Write a sequence for this structure.
């Protein structure tokens, strides 16, 4: 079961709300699918701001760098992106999951106005 | 994600209200929505998937009949254990249940029992169950164990727990004690099917003798109900 928001604010969804309300531009990354051995379960979150600050985890450290870099793009374009990581991926030499699993990560902007049509 | 939708999702999570955030994956940026377990899902092609996800508590992708994929971010409250009776068994059960990941609350109106010395860490309420069960809201993600042997203290929260659909309800007492309890609760309007959900004599049948061993037996049955009960994940 997913834990409730943490009172000491290490909860990524609570932080995403807090950061966005402070006026920071924020993206939220979510593990939507895993294959094989994956370090973080489906539903795990990472919150990122436009400066590249982040909290949470989608892979236990293996691909966070790439997700953060992509999230900065997502924040500037305001368009969600779907990322896939794994040893089968052509980017495996660059970033990948040493455990041999594959994960799919949705990165979406947190918007303070209705999304553009 | 719209910030107001995120706020509503977080409010549900802090308020121990189950919620599912639905995100279409095939049309980036298309609107997300939030559903609760008591929302009217009649005619919604995802109704069965959503009901199943509320029971399992697991996030994941589902297929819409139109062939598109949606991601369900599922939030259900962390399991909670409410112990009626600040007794010796509870003193052993509180730390065990906390280690196993439960939020634990002990309720006992007898101020000689319900002391911070016996229950450190603010887990004990020296109140009548009826007076505090409003704020300690019972729900299907809560287990209740009544451990005082005193019908004046145990009966009301047992009835409340059965009515609230708590995933585990147990009561301490011999078979004879439990027989009398049956008479009282049925008299008070509890249905037989509900009454039969009670774990009594309480705990897994492991020959537990000491209070700490009984605590292990009770926690075992609580975890069994959580992980293998009718509402648990398949």
């Amino acid at each position: 079961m997913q834990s409730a928001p943490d009172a000491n604010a290490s909860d990524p969804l609570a932080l995403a709300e807090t950061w966005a309300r402070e006026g920071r531009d924020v993206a939220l990354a979510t593990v939507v699918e895993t294959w094989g051995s994956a370090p973080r379960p489906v539903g795990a979150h990472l919150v990122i701001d436009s400066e590249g600050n982040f909290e949470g985890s989608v892979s236990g450290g293996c691909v966070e760098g790439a997700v953060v870099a992509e999230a900065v793009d997502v924040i500037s374009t305001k368009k969600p992106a779907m990322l896939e990581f794994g040893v089968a991926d052509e980017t495996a030499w660059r970033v990948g999951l040493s455990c041999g699993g594959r994960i799919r990560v949705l990165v979406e902007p947190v918007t303070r106005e209705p999304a553009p049509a | 994600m719209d910030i107001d939708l995120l706020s509503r999702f977080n409010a549900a999570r802090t308020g121990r209200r189950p919620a599912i955030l639905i995100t279409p994956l095939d049309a980036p940026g298309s609107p997300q929505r939030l559903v609760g377990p008591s929302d009217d899902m009649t005619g919604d092609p995802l109704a069965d998937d959503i009901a199943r996800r509320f029971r399992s508590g697991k996030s994941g992708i589902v297929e819409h009949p139109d062939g598109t994929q949606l991601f369900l971010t599922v939030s259900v409250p962390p399991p909670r254990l409410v112990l009626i009776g600040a007794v010796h068994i509870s003193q052993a059960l509180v730390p065990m249940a906390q280690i196993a990941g439960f939020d634990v609350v002990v309720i006992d109106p007898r101020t000689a029992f319900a002391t911070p010395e016996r229950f450190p860490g603010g887990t004990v309420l020296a109140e009548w169950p009826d007076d505090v069960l409003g704020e300690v809201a019972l729900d299907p993600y809560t287990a209740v164990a009544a451990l005082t042997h005193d019908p004046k203290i145990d009966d009301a929260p047992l009835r409340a727990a059965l009515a609230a659909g708590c995933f585990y309800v147990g009561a301490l007492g011999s078979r004879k004690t439990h027989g009398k309890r049956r008479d009282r609760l049925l008299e008070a309007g509890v249905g037989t099917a509900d009454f039969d959900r009670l774990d009594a004599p309480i705990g897994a049948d492991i020959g537990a003798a000491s209070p700490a061993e009984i605590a292990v037996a009770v926690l075992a049955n609580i975890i069994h109900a959580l992980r293998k009960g009718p509402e648990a994940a398949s």
In short: The mean pLDDT of chain B is 92. Strands of chain B lie at 19-24, 33-35, 60-63, 69-75, 80-84, 103-107, 124-125, 142-146, 168-171.
